[in-house]
Amino acid sequence: MPLGWYLAQGLYPLGPSSSDDEEGPCELPDGRLVCGPHGFVVCGKCCSDYSFMEEVLEDEDEDEDEDEAYSSASRVHEGLRAPFSGGTEKRRGTGLAFPTKFCPPSPTINPLELFSGRRAWMRAIRSVTLQLKGPMTDHVYTHRNDPNMLLLFTDGACLNNGQANPKAGWAFVHHAGTGPSDPPGVAEGRLESQGPFGDDAIQSSNRAELRAVIAALRFRHWAGENFHTAVIATDSEYVVEGSTAWARTWIRNGWLTSSRQPVKNKDLWEMLLGEVERWKEAGMDIQFWRIPREWNTVADAAAKKAAEGRDVDKWAELIGMAI
C-alpha cells in the first residue's frame, strides 16, 4: 500500500519511541520515513526531506519477490503523488492551473443525495484563534459512484458588510456526521485583518467566502488520502465565476479589471489559485459547485457565528490530518 494509505489510516508515527511531539523521522510499516510531528515525507515546518528513502527502498525491492513489491507507477496510481507541505507554504498562483465547474447529473439534485459519508480518522492542529467542532472520527463526503471524489461545503459571512465596523467570518464542513451524537464536522474562524502575504485587508463577505475555500483546501492532505478531485460546494457566485472564468482574464490583464482598475482581493485570489496549482501537481483537481443558499445552512450558520468572534490580526492556519 502507498504512503498516502498509511497516513490516512493513522499508521504514523510508529515504534515505541515515537510520538507526535518527537522531532526527527518516524518509520512506517513499509520502511518509509516521515517527520515525527506532522507525518510528512517532505515537511516545511520541520525543514525535513525523507524522499530519498524512495530510491533506497526501490533498490531493496529489486531483490524481493515481484508479487510483494510494487512499482513506482502503481504507487502513483494508488495515490502517492508529489509531496505536500501540509499548509505551511503560501503560494501565489500564476495561472498554471484553474479550477473547473462541477456538473451534477441534475440541477435539482442536492449534494447530500450525490455524496455520502466515508469513515476516516483525523485530528486537528488548532490555532487559538480558530475553532473546530465535531468528533475525532469523521465521515468524509464522497461521491456515491466514485469514492475518490471529495465534497466540502464552504461559506463566508460579514456582519455590517460594507458599513461601519464590519466583522467577517468563514467556515467549511468537512465531514457528514451520523446523527445527534455525531454532528457534521465544521471548522470556522474570524477573517484576519491581514492577508496571507501580510497585506492589510478589509472585512467583507467576499473575502470571507474566498478565505473559507482556502481554509478547506489547506485543512488536510486530501491527495494523500487518495482523492483525485475535491468539489467545493458554495453559494457564492463571486467565488465560482471568479475562480473558473474571471481569473483567467485578470491574469492576462496583469490583475486589472476590464475598466483597468486593480482587482479587489487580489491576495486571496492569488492564494486560491496557488492552492489549485499545488493540488494539481499532487494529482488532484479542484472543482466548484454553486448551490442554493438553503443547501448550505450548516456552513452558513457557522460562518455567521465566527463573524461574531474576537478580532484576528495575522493569518492563522487550521490543519487536520489523519491519525
UniProtKB/TrEMBL annotation:
UniProt catalytic activity: Endonucleolytic cleavage to 5'-phosphomonoester
Sequence ranges assigned to domain RNase H type-1 in this UniProt record: 146-308
Listed EC numbers: 3.1.26.4
Entry annotated with the keyword DNA-binding: no
Gene3D superfamilies linked: Ribonuclease H-like superfamily/Ribonuclease H
A Pfam entry, by short name: RNase_H
Keywords recorded for this protein, A-Z: Endonuclease, Hydrolase, Metal-binding, Nuclease
Family statement: Belongs to the RNase H family.
Annotated protein name in UniProt: ribonuclease H
Provenance organism: Apiospora rasikravindrae
